[in-house]
Amino acid sequence: MAKIIAIHSYRGGTGKSNLTANIATIVAQAGNRVAIVDTDLPSPGIHVLFGLGEEQIKNTLNSYLWGQCALKDTIYNVSHVMTQKTASSAIYLLPSSAKLADISRILREGYDFELLLEGFKKLIDLLELDYLFIDTHPGLNQETLVSLTISNLVLYIMRPDKQDFQGTAVTIDVARRLQVPKVLIIVNKALKEYNFAQLSQEVESTYKTRVAGILQQSDEVMRMASKGIFAVCYPEQLFSRVIKGIARQIIL
């Protein structure tokens, strides 16, 4: 049975989509069939990390939710990003539309959440997935609640910032109320001078939740500017080693 993993953050700007792309790709390279669904419909962007331009994307998750195409027509095989893989490795992406008109329509009209839930189930069967990653919209809304409800694991991305500390407390409480089986925290964009062991202890003590990894603010990641999967392109960098450690905790 496929494991469903929701990647969430209380606020935008945490690096959620970048981490989703990196973690999911490393999980796929380990010999798994993986798919990512970009449900951040108001502000999509994860497709950029996989080198998909608007001219290459004919149908999107929006198209499926509006009844304009079948689910299978929204799937893009992005396995080309992997440099190391086994015979069973594969990674697929279901992007959302980055067109202004489509984003405006989503914000204005919304969409059928039951159809989204049905789409997740169909996707798992259609692609015979081992892992389904859901890149969620920041904050708390109906789409987020749907994603959390069906997830086996929620990865919360937070920065070592007071606003993030307060907001993450709210979202973790929601996950517990929804009885999500497992919750892990990833601290991103931590400054080099921080005491990482102390920071991890503080976060775990505050939320009674395990920290899966702390990622240092990286100039190299910023320079890459979303032009690829960093952990694949630079596997020996500290950022990449932490990503691999997080991926191992997911696969266990």
From TrEMBL:
Residues 2-174 form the AAA domain. It comes from the Bacteria. Pfam families: AAA_31 (PF13614). This is Cobyrinic acid ac-diamide synthase. It comes from Hyella patelloides LEGE 07179.
